[in-house]
Amino acid sequence: MTAPQRLTDRKREAIIQAAISEFRSHGFEITSMDKIAATAGVSKRTVYNHFPSKEELFAEILNQLWARIIAEPSVSYNREQPLREQLRQMLREKMQMMADENFLTLARVAIAATIHSPERAQNMIERMGEREEGLTVWIRAAQADGRLQAVDPEFAAHQVQGLLKTFAFWPQVSMGRAVLDIEMQHSVAESALDMFLARYQR
After folding, report:
1. Which UniProt keywords are given for this protein, alphabetically ordered (predicted)?
2. Taking the model in full, what pTM does it have?
3. In 3D, which of 152, 26, 95 has the Cα closest to residue 35?
C-alpha cells in the first residue's frame, strides 16, 4: 500500500470514528457533516469525498456492525465432535464480541438512530437479511445430520442468542451496565448451552 493510500485510509477511519462519537453523543438527526469533519480533523470536502451523505456514512457504520455480527465462526459443523463442544465455542465467541466496547458503541449508535426512523430500521433489517448468520448455518448442518430436532434454524439461533443478550448485551446497551467478566461470560454461555441442547438435541 502506498503512503497516499495509507493516509486516505487513515482519514476514512478517522471520519467513521468521529461519526460514531457524534452520533452517539448527539443523535443522527442533530449531527452535521461539519461537526463530523471538525471532530475527525479533516475538511468537509474530505468527508464528502469518502461519503456523499450522512446516510452513506451511517450505512458504513451499520456495515461494520453487521460484519462483526455475521463474522464466520471459528467452528464449522463437525459430525465427529460432540455438539456441546462445538456450540460452546461459538457461544463463547458471541459473548466475547458482546464484551467488546467498540461493538457495544456501534450497537448503541445503530439502535438510537433506527428508533427514530422506521424506514432506516427497515433498510438495516433488509441488509441484515442478505446473508445468513454463522450459528444459523451450523444449526442447519446439525439438523441435516440428524443431531438436532426439526425447527426453523433462524428461530433457534435467535432463541439461544437471546439468552446471551439478556445478560451480556441489552443491560450494557440500554442501561450502561459494565460488560461481563470472563467467568460470568462462561456461566451465561453454559446456561444457554444447557437450555438449547435440552430442548433441541436428539
Report:
1. DNA-binding, Transcription, Transcription regulation
2. 0.79
3. 26
